[in-house]
Amino acid sequence: MYVPLTGLRHAVRLVDGLTELDDPEGFARLALPGLARLVGCDSLSFTVLGAEAGQVSVTRYPDDISSHGSVAAFAAYVHEHPLANYHRETGDARPVMISDFLSREGFHRLNLYGEYFRWIPVEYQIAFGLPAAGSEITGIALNRAGSDFTEDERALLSVIRVPLMTALDRARQRQRAREVLATATSGAVAGLADLTDGEMRVLRLAALGRTNSAIARALDVSPRTVAKHLEHIYRKLDVTSRTSAVFAALTGRS
To answer: Quick one: how far is CA 204 from the chain centroid?
Structure first.
């Protein structure tokens, strides 16, 4: 697989931009433009397919692509989508292309093409899966009208998919931690009452997966100050590690 220097720069920028993502709702807003720069394409979509028919959410980039390609039309005919069906049947989330399964003529015969893709327009598509809840299917699709994707581009997406999965998982974990910590005030959760306001702020950010350096930047203090706060937190909670302190914050146990 050959990746030019500009491609490597785009890949690093994409992964770096997702490092501090807190809210999974913001994932598509950051990931789709970055992927568009990394792998040239006309449009992209971040799609979540629910377990029940009609449960479809689509975030498109650019967001001004043809409104004729409505989400309602996609939901009505998504059962014809060869890539979604392949993922649902096999669990294989690696990048696959429509041309792996259908000729252009076969693709054009689908209602999914006639009622949705041709309006965007999409003649070629490559898509890969991402972590999803339960029986949902979550994935990103890249679209072109003029030429199919190459094997080098498939390989590049296979590589970049791993840090994208990590970023999305981490954002979901941070969201869950934030929801729990919203109720974990120093006076309301057993074992945390002795922490100062500054120590609670450090512990909350640590529970969100922040490094000492990231916590220092967020609180406008030095990394040494963060380390000292953590030492005091460990002593007050009677724990010996960052993981144990975070566990105490999330469960109210010390």
So the answer is: 22
Cα(214)–Cα(219) distance, rounded to whole angstroms? 9
pLDDT, position 241: 76
The answer on pLDDT for 40 being more than 70 is yes
Q: Which residue has the higher pLDDT, 87 or 50?
A: 87
Q: Are residues 152 and 203 in the same domain?
A: no
Burial state string for 205-232 with b = 16 or more CB within 10 A and e = fewer than 16: bbbbbbebebbbebbebeeebbeebbee
Which of 174, 196, 230 corresponds to the end of one domain? 174
pLDDT in the model for residue 194: 79
Are residues 74 and 162 part of one domain? yes
145 and 104: one domain? yes
Task: Please indicate, yes or no, whether residues 189 and 224 belong to a single structural domain of this protein.
Answer: yes
174 contacts 209 by C-beta, under 8 angstroms: yes
Domain span holding position 195? 183-251
Identity of the amino acid at 34: G
Q: DSSP string spanning 212-244? A: HHHHHHHHTS-HHHHHHHHHHHHHHHT-SSHHH
Prediction pTM value: 0.74
Read off the pLDDT of residues 128-179 as tens digits, 9 standing for 90 and up.
999 887 778 999 999 999 999 999 999 999 999 999 999 998 888 777 777 7
Residues 76, 53: Cα–Cα separation, whole Å: 8
